[in-house]
Design goal:
The radius of gyration is 24 Å and the shape is globular. A hairpin with a 5-residue loop joins strand 9 and strand 10. It has twelve helices and 16 strands. Helix 8 packs antiparallel against helix 10 and helix 11 runs antiparallel to helix 12. It has three domains: 150 residues, 3-Layer(aba) Sandwich (Trna Endonuclease, Chain: A, domain 1); 110 residues, Phosphorylase Kinase, domain 1 (2-Layer Sandwich), CATH 3.30.200; 171 residues, Transferase(Phosphotransferase), domain 1 (Orthogonal Bundle), CATH 1.10.510. With 465 residues, the protein is α+β, with helices and mostly antiparallel strands. About 3% of the residues have low confidence.
Length: 465
């Protein structure tokens, strides 16, 4: 019988370091719950808020909380106290804020010894009798059992074998070693090793390769892991000039201009940090650091339907934070112009750009994701303006909140038509940001950020009343 892939929970510590392992483990749990527990309302709460790590359910009704404890070497006496404190915090918050905590799941990536198992069973029975909350333990055995289920295959691939996705017919999803060394002229493919200068990179699936209409240049981008020397997850962007046409040279110069821009910004908050720039014959490549966290798609699932109040406040706050990174680009005369939920990463209270998008790259008709494309990106080629990013961010937020992609003609329903409790001022600002006329939108990202912050406060305060 084919062997299941080795699942080592030390992978979180290897990838994220000692300080980031717990958060990486928690993010895995969120995706695992989403994959195995069906159609749930999944949100991430701020650290310490209501004793929540991962929430399934409704904070106006019944809720299940997954409590992540990255105790990789077992549960010590001190860690027992942490477990008790976490449950008490979650139970107290439920009583204070008017929702029912029906299930509390302790998630640890290790096994308990016999005395600790006895302690857990006794304490669990005592708390269940006292509070009525059903309590469970997902230890390393239970977590592995969930991870090897077919519906959790993508989670397993991402965290424990991220380089190649197995065929849907390979139910065991056995890991396949990356043994293919690409030559520069070969298409980028997940699981292959690509050499840039003296560095080897292992490419993930999902690489993009887009040739120009006249076949004079090719654009490539991919997520990869640095193999040697050093380690770390990165984003690669490359332009290959096949024939030195004017547009090919423009795109090559644009990518170099993007590298100059990111080098000047030097890792400003939310903006990717430039790691390397290489020109080898017809290939020009830039390497940037990959952001932490989960994609906006994973966290907020835009298009899955109208959101609840807590998720709305978190999405609004993430958009507010992203305004700072976009304002940084705008201050240097650059625009992103390719915002979509897989290009944004959410990590705790911060939102990051995965890359610089189309910054410094020449404009082209119908660029960017069609769902969030601003009207001026379709109608005509014009000098990029910050208002395009404003429209795209507002469109993404509107889609996240309502479940609907906004009308590019500026005739979208108000958010309050779907979410009656949504703040009027924020609703009106979103409507203005989605205006088909770029000149009628807000003055800047900083103005938009201020309105988003006020709207987030209104959402939180209304939820507590």
């Amino acid at each position: 019988m084919p062997q299941q892939p080795m699942i080592s929970f030390f992978a979180h510590q290897t990838r994220a370091g000692a300080t980031g392992a717990r958060e990486d483990f928690e993010q895995m749990l969120a995706q695992l719950a989403q994959a195995t527990l069906g159609n749930v309302n999944l949100v991430f709460a701020n650290p310490g808020d209501w004793g929540i790590d991962v929430l399934l359910g409704d904070l106006n009704g019944e809720a299940t909380i997954l409590q992540a404890k990255y105790f990789i070497s077992g549960v010590t006496r001190h860690q027992k106290t942490q477990i008790k404190d976490s449950f008490e915090s979650a139970h107290r918050a439920a009583l204070t804020n008017g929702y029912a905590l029906t299930r509390w799941v302790l998630c640890v990536p290790s096994s308990m010894d016999a005395p600790t198992t006895q302690w857990w069973q006794d304490w669990k029975r005592e708390q269940q009798r006292a509070t009525g909350v059903r309590m469970e333990l997902w230890d390393e055995t239970a977590l592995r059992d969930l991870l090897i289920r077919p519906e959790a295959a993508n989670v397993r691939e991402h965290y424990y074998n991220p380089y190649r996705q197995s065929s849907v017919h390979e139910e065991e999803h056995s890991p396949r070693p990356a043994t293919v060394m690409l030559t520069p002229s070969e298409p980028w493919a997940g699981g292959s090793v690509y050499r840039l200068g003296d560095v080897l990179y292992l490419l993930h699936d999902g690489a993009l390769e887009r040739p120009s209409d006249d076949r004079s240049w090719t654009w490539r981008e991919a997520t990869a892991d640095r193999l040697a020397p050093g380690t770390g997850r990165v984003r690669l962007h490359q332009v290959e000039v096949l024939r030195p046409t004017a547009t090919a040279n423009e795109h090559r110069s644009g990518l170099l201009g993007q590298a100059d821009l990111l080098g000047q910004l030097n890792g400003r908050p939310g903006v990717p940090r430039l790691l390397d720039t290489l020109t080898q014959g017809p290939y020009t490549t830039i390497v940037t650091a990959h952001p932490p966290g989960l994609t906006w798609t994973r966290v907020f699932a835009p298009g899955s339907g109208p959101t609840d109040r807590l998720t709305a406040s978190l999405a609004v706050d993430a958009a507010r934070d992203l305004c700072g990174a976009l304002a940084t680009l705008h201050s240097r005369g650059a625009t992103h112009r390719s915002l979509h939920p897989d290009a944004l990463f959410v990590h705790r209270k911060r939102c990051y750009l995965r890359d610089a998008g189309r910054a410094a790259i020449p404009s082209s008709p119908d660029e960017g994701d069609a769902r969030y494309r601003a009207p001026e990106q379709v109608r005509t080629l014009r000098a990029p303006q910050p208002g395009t990013d404003l429209y795209q961010l507002a469109a993404l937020l509107y889609h996240t909140l309502t479940g609907y992609v906004p009308s590019p003609g500026g005739a979208s329903l108000p958010v309050a038509a779907v979410l009656p409790w949504f703040p009027d001022a924020l609703d009106q600002t979103l409507e203005r940001a989605l205006d088909s006329d770029i000149e009628s939108r807000l003055a800047s990202m900083r103005v938009f950020a201020g309105v988003l912050e006020a709207g987030r406060r209104d959402l939180v305060q209304a939820g507590r009343s």
